[in-house]
Amino acid sequence: MDIGPVSAMKFAEAIKKCHTVFWNGPMGVFEFSNFSAGTKAIAAALTEVQGLAVVGGGDSAAAVRALGFTDSQFGYISTGGGAALEYLEGKELPGLIALQS
C-alpha cells in the first residue's frame, strides 16, 4: 500500500533533475505511518527542485501537511488535482468558461 524504498529513491532522483514538477496523488496510504515513507520521500525530493514544484490535489496537499512539510517549501499547493491536470491537458473547464463570459 506504498511504493518501496528502491522505487522511492528512483522517483526522487528523477524529480531532483527536473525544473518543473506537478505532483498529483500520494504514493501510498500516507494516513498510516507504515505506508507513508514513499509519499514522504517524494515530498522531500520536491522541496529540492531548482524550479517550480507544484503539489496538486486535496490528498497530496493533506499528505505533505500531515507529514510535517510547510506550504512554503513548495512552489504552489493546489487542491484541484483532477481539474488542474485537465487544464494542463488543454481541456476546457466549465467553471473557467463561465468566468470568461
TrEMBL record:
UniProt-listed SUPFAM superfamilies: Phosphoglycerate kinase (SSF53748)
GO CC entries: cytosol
UniProt GO molecular function: ADP binding; ATP binding; phosphoglycerate kinase activity
InterPro entries linked: Phosphoglycerate_kinase (IPR001576), Phosphoglycerate_kinase_N (IPR015824), Phosphoglycerate_kinase_sf (IPR036043)
Entry keyword set: ATP-binding, Kinase, Nucleotide-binding, Transferase
E.C. number(s) listed in UniProt: 2.7.2.3
Pfam family, any one: PGK
Reaction catalysis annotation: (2R)-3-phosphoglycerate + ATP = (2R)-3-phospho-glyceroyl phosphate + ADP
Top enzyme category: transferase
Entry's Gene Ontology BP terms: gluconeogenesis; glycolytic process
Protein name: phosphoglycerate kinase
Organism, scientific name: freshwater metagenome
